[in-house]
Queue: 4 jobs
Job 1
Amino acid sequence: MTLTTDGVSLGYGDEAVLDDVSIGVDSGEVLTVVGPSGTGKTTLLRLLSMFRRPDAGTVAWHDTDVWGLSDEERLAVRRQISMVFQEPSLFNAPVARNVLYGQRVRQSWSERVQRRVRDAVGDRSMTETAHTALETVGLLDKRDRNALSLSGGEAQRVAFARALAVDPEIMLLDEPSSNLDPRNTAVLEEAILRAKARGVGVVVATHDMNQAERISDRIAFVYDGSVVESGPPERIFDDPRDRRTNRFVAGDLLYEVDDESALPTSASESS
């Protein structure tokens, strides 16, 4: 696996958010992390992106513990990972400049000086990866438009293009289409599959089981800070091993259950 967690746990104060979570994603696959709101999906993405260090367990990049690396080495790893948040954060600047931002902050000092020289003489050319990223999300024709004038769906697509333009090995998406209309959702899902076809590994946190069924190679069901089970979509949907998974797939409200320990371990045991 390219990026993995092994037995990670994390809490805020006395509150445990994740408990003994082991999960991984490889290049060229889509892993969706599903579960009700507040069960630790976003926190898991923050651990995978190295925004937070786990209280216990290991986050590994190509089998190397990232928190055993130097700060410089860990930064180099983080630059192979990009993240798209639920709410896009764009600059008051043209779409193209927003998409190029991730590339610019990764440049060395000498590369930044050369870029400023090119800007001074009016060279506004886009790099090939940024051009491809905008094309992937269907917004190449809006490259010169101010990003703040876009609709919410278009803004989220620009955020995705910016994350893709750095040519990452792994992309982490936190509820990327939770506030989007069906058309923008369809465009974004197609962009995810096109990124996968390029060899990018994609982790999508979502509570939308229909979306998970459409785009996933694997699904991990997270509940109450733990991975209840994971597997290919057809097994999670048609033959879940845990009753909680079965109930979530069926649309039941799991927070109404008071005693989780009383739940049978197999969906086949429920009646």
Job 2
Amino acid sequence: MGLRALLDLPAPAKLNLFLHVVGRRADGYHLLQSPFVLIDWADALHLERRDDGRLQRHDLSAALPPDDLCLRAARALQQASGTRLGVDLSIDKRVPWGAGLGGGSSDAATTLLGLNRLWGLAWPRARLLALAATLGADVPFFVGGHNAFVEGIGERLTPIVLPVAWYAVVKPAAPLSTAAIFSSPLVERSPEADIVAGFLADAIAPGAVADGWTRKLLDGLGRNDLQAAAEDRCDEVAQAAVWLQARYGNSRMTGSGSAVFARAGTGDQPLAAFPTEALPKGWVGRMCRSMARHPLADWAG
């Protein structure tokens, strides 16, 4: 009969340690270069098999849009595989939306990985990656299973190895629209990005990053070329950056949302505890630890 349910599947968030805009395609999509790192702030998904082919989503916390990315991922996999099975998909949403943390994309990736097992499809990772690329720019990264240097519009992944590190992450009350940020005339462009790509070509051993490159990443190499545009649209982004800078000596926006993070050390404990009691009203935040690989990395070959 096969599996009936898969419960408590993690969908971890990500940080962009830097985000360089390096060009724009004829169709308007921006070309990026960014190291993506997984963190332990995660949503939880529960998948229960249906034999009638129906796809049903149940929101256990925050209410999601009627046809969210998880349902679209399930529908795409169902249609592409030809399976007659369906799913009851329950989502405990813990990662804030509109934050640039990739929560929706991660949920979609966990949906693909989970249904690949629940429905007994046994698709290889390469096939899941091709489907993930049709759903959204960040979805392939989470399906890939490892921290990665991401290029293009998100489809080109080079696995990288980074030491486990701590990051203080703050999400102000206001969300940000990705489309609104990328359409801003304040989006910057990094002339040094091609140099970064060249360094990667020389520095990456199979599946690893050279020590010098690792130190540069942890020391705050690069910038987020979308941050000026985000701060122009949302004062709280700048306020969050100042808030973290005062406590950890550094800060940077992640992705194209309103969340900001600060490096807070490596090792078993962060350099300083997260001051939850000092968060302004309406803000959420926590101390996050990076992850070496996705918890479901082995669920696709």
Job 3
Amino acid sequence: MDRRAREDRPASAARAPDGLTRNTTAAVRDALEGRRRGLALLLPLAGPAVVVSVAYIDPGNFATNIQAGARYGYALLWVVLLANVIAMLFQGLSAKLGIATGRNLAELCRDSLPAPFVWLMWSVSEVAAMATDLAEFLGGAIGLALLFHLPLLAGMAVTAVVTYALLFLERAGFRPLELVIGALVGVIGICYVLELFITPVEWPSLLRHLATPRLPDAQAVTIAVGIIGATVMPHALFLHSGLTQARVLARDDTERARLVKFSNVEVVVALSVAGLVNMAMVVMASGAFHEGYADVAGIGTAYRTLAPLLGAAAASIFLVSLIASGISSSVVGTLAGQMIMQGFVNFRIPLWLRRALTMVPSFVVVALGVNATVALVMSQVVLSLALPFPMTALVWFTCRRDVMGPHRNGALTAAVAVAGAAVVLALNVVLLLGTFGVAVPGLA
């Protein structure tokens, strides 16, 4: 996109930001023009990163984090930390792309890349969206089924109804949906604060492993890649640029720079909370299962084992957090899938139909008798394999002056982004080699 086209975008898109009330829009304008300070400045601008943070604490995270903590104790905490830092960087870039260009990542791919590559990226992104939805939908259903002693199919039906109800909130604007999702994120965070008071924690060992990169064996690679896939998610990279592209209509580059600054603060805060929740999941699984129950790999097994080990309260809190995670992330995943389809192929279907289509694989998995937790973990590996496509595109676009203007990445940001993408690609290569039986030096 040339400079003139970029400057013309706000004029051509001069409409009220989607989903913001008049009061919120006025508050945002006050913040941009310096009439607000402190928390009152940030609150009207908050929302996109909070919504996206749900993708970082979805049921796929529960599955991979339980396996990591039960099997390896604190040994893979450094992977969680690394994944969260990479996530902060790339979600910040995605938000900046939407603010600076007024377009989302999928739209820019459609207009800038060769048609065959666009179709390939769309296909991969749709597969990743289905894998995401499998994890989210199954997770909420498992939590409901265990907590209320329902058949899994009944839990899936309840999850579907609640998800549809939340999606209908979007008709009243996006702000109400942001507030509900933010409340669900708060529920998840509170649940894991409570879990840490119940679970024994070895703080010196925790801090040592947090700062010591080590993969104990080849199976740890699969779980590490699953953690990366469950944390840095393809649909979240697409979604964040879409949430910021027309949310606030900046009038000039100075206001865009302020929006980027505010967005970065929100990204750091929201994803720090998500990262701490992920670490708490690993710590809880390690404290409860690592000594004597290292083979605990399933969410259902974890729940049933928690009750005699830490008490019924700990087990119930675990399920409440899982249900909140599954429902909220399922809603966000549906919105992201709609944005991916619209961006790549300029085609939109009703959200209820999108929701219905993406639920089908989950019902198929249950009908075939596939272990639900195994399906959750493998879905995260699929996400990690799809991740290089949006990561590479995001780095490329945000480094281009003709796309970003004065907001393009600086040399340091570009170098760190390339390094983060390289880490993900390297882990993917190791996973593929292990899958095909090729020995990896340094791993058992």
Job 4
Amino acid sequence: MERLGYIGARRELERRVLRNYPWIEHYLIHGRGLPRRWLQLVSWRGLSTLAQVALGLVESLFIICKFRPTVIVGMGGFSSFPPVLWGILLGIPTVIHEVNAVPGLVNRLLAPHVDLVTTAYAQTARLLRARRIATTGVPLRRELLEAAQLPQEELKAGLGLDLRKRTVLVLGGSRGAAPLNRAILRSRVDRDDLQILLVTGGGAPQRGGTGIIAKQYLDRVGEALAAADLVISRAGAATIAELTALGKPAILVPWLEAAENHQELNARLLEQAGGAIVLPEGALEEVDLVELARKLLAERERLRQMADRSRAMGRPDGLQRFLEEVERLLTRI
């Protein structure tokens, strides 16, 4: 019998999302991202981080001994480091996937030692040393692609949207984005032809003005993406993959604090392909974001071209390609 286990961080977001997938055995470990400057490790916060990493290593070893996995897959980030490291040391087949244009610290450290590295972008392969490497795109949830097949009327009705209005979806990522929220909530959406679906994230204001539908979370974000005529969002790798898989034109506002500026690099790739406009976060105080969206929506031919170029960059078969590479690896070991 096949089993699927997930090891993640002890965050409320992960607990909330995992509750929707009861067939996944999930385990949450201690951990925290390492500071960007090594000298910061000698601070109290740095020492606390090292202690949490050590605890996460111990927790992961117990989980692996209990679960006895056939293969261990790391998706980057601090919570993937302990289980993948134990997989390498214990001789369990190991895979890491790099979703960003520029690989993060954890994947750079692990890449030379794992059995397979997969990447979202072909150019990323040149930045990693690995035994075997393949470009697959980002594995996407089937629900996302299924939502794209539903009629617009059904999608909008399910989200409580007006069927007659053009829709702008504003996403700040899993934790929301306060600057995006503020930029939208201070704008006026007082015309009958436009509506804003704003996903604020935790701890953000929940009430918008006329024409703004503010929601704290959307568990089925695929339906919102499929219903949108234009998306305004951060530039996380998963978001870029979803936008391009569905062929959605976008205004991207990269998060300034993203490790190694990876959101800026992700956003610029889509901008260069012609599928997005990149707006620096500092410009949000000067630009009326809703008015910018309205002007872009009025340029229907430009919007159509952006959608086509976004779709051309997408890899909706990323999950299938990824699974094929993992299966190929296991048949050779």
